[in-house]
Design a protein that fits this description.
about 180 residues; 3 domains; two-stranded antiparallel sheet; 3 helices; about 5% strand
């Protein structure tokens, strides 16, 4: 539109410059009015164009400011999320360490419990009655009874061995 107005203005000026021919299409007053009218239109068009550019520039600046605020908010949010992520990672590492320590503690306690249970079982077995076979008869005897029997038999055997050795000595010396 601005271009058409400029072309029209140029044509009018060209027609006015051809004034010496005096074959004027317009009178001087009419030509001046037309030129002034065209100038007013061009100025109005320029002002409208400038106004539109200013409005568009203001709208773009407002949109740019809004986008800048959104970007800043997103950056803050991203930094917060990153800090939370780092905190969670640190907490996970701490919990893994605790888990490993607890696993070691449980394994050690289980080993100690097993050792204690074995010790207790050994002690209790010594006190429990045992199945004993004597002269083809099976019966249950306490550990103390079994110990006393074994001790008596050992003494008896040792006396028997001593007597047989004495007997053997007597028989060899009597010969």
């Amino acid at each position: 539109m601005l271009r058409q107005t400029s072309i029209a203005l140029t044509l009018m000026l060209a027609l006015l410059a051809a004034g010496p021919a005096r074959a004027a299409l317009f009178e001087d007053d009419e030509a001046r009015k037309a030129i002034l009218d065209l100038r007013a239109r061009v100025q109005a068009s320029d002002e409208q164009h400038k106004t539109r550019l200013t409005e568009q520039s203001n709208a773009a600046a407002a949109a740019n400011a809004q986008l800048t605020e959104q970007i800043a908010a997103l950056r803050r949010s991203l930094l917060d999320l990153n800090a939370q992520l780092e905190n969670l990672r640190a907490e996970m590492a701490r919990m893994r360490g605790q888990d490993e320590q607890l696993t070691r503690d449980v394994a050690e306690l289980q080993r100690k419990q097993k050792d204690l249970a074995q010790g207790v079982d050994e002690r209790v077995r010594k006190l429990e009655p045992r199945k004993v076979t004597l002269d083809g008869v099976e019966f249950m005897a306490d550990a103390e009874e079994t110990r006393q029997y074994t001790e008596a038999m050992t003494t008896l055997r040792s006396r028997f061995v001593i007597r047989s050795q004495l007997f053997a000595l007597r028989t060899t010396s009597a010969r």
